[in-house]
Amino acid sequence: MACAAVMIPGLLRCSVGAIRIEAASLRLTLSTLRHLTLTSIMKSKRKTDHLERTASVLRREIVSAAKVCGAASESPSVKSLRLLVADQDFSFKAGQWVDFFIPGVSVVGGFSICSSPRLLEQERVIELAVKYTNHPPALWVHNTCTLDCEVAVRVGGEFFFDPQPADASRNLVLIAGGVGINPLLSILRHAADLLREQANKRNGYEIGTIKLFYSAKNTSELLFKKNILDLVNEFPEKIACSLHVTKQTTQINAELKPYITEGRITEKEIRDHISKETLFYICGPPPMTDFFSKQLENNHVPKEHICFEKWW
């Protein structure tokens, strides 16, 4: 994982070997606490484990109890979860992820939050979208998880968009591949909240334009496409999207067709959006992230204007 981002007060860097979980800071039920032992967290040492991949990345100290309050299929391979997090000390920046602790599962998951911080403020809810794999946390989400299941979450990550009212106005270009849409959807939804706030209060952070480039194998694997198009239609002068499919075999429906391009996202498409006022956020398969990061640098985009997430 890498990112041109700022340090966040209240977060810490921790190694897998130095994780401490103290009952006083967890806000958890006793039954949940029994399952969140150091032994269960440390048990698996495979290279693919989230805790090992993110050992040097900033995360908060607080682990908060959460309860599953909703679930849905977003695609043939992706299931979304809504989690109720009552702990008032739990907060996150748009684009961050959570360590996902499951009672009885020895491996800790790592899933990006795809909802906006505003939803948490208003309803104490966060949303995750988990792709089916044979990794134990993902298997649990797809095969075992039911409403009212209790889990625990801890926020981490250096990939986020969190402008302050006095910050300079920026355009955003969001480049997503597959389930890499998750943190970028959180940023897109946060940008929409900022636009609504600006329209209602006539003040606050003045955001520029937002362009989403999103690639998947086919339209059934384009997650949250209705949510994305709703935002495009709500803010037609501010938000735009280009949806790419690389292995489409069926006819594309009429509603989606104006936004669909068959083939990969190209360097030229991205290059056309380069400006001094533009920030680039990239999240997708590592080769895709590497390619666009390098191309942007080659086109003289400052490194501090390029933020990417790469950890699965």
TrEMBL record:
GO terms for molecular function: oxidoreductase activity. Residues 50-186 form the FAD-binding FR-type domain. It holds the Pfam family NAD_binding_1. InterPro entries: FAD-bd_FR_type (IPR017927), FNR_nucleotide-bd (IPR039261), Oxidoreductase_NAD-binding (IPR052128), OxRdtase_FAD/NAD-bd (IPR001433), Riboflavin_synthase-like_b-brl (IPR017938). It comes from the Eukaryota. Gene3D superfamilies: Nucleotide-binding domain of ferredoxin-NADP reductase (FNR) module, Translation factors. Keywords: NAD, Oxidoreductase. This is Oxidoreductase NAD-binding domain-containing protein 1. The gene is OXNAD1.
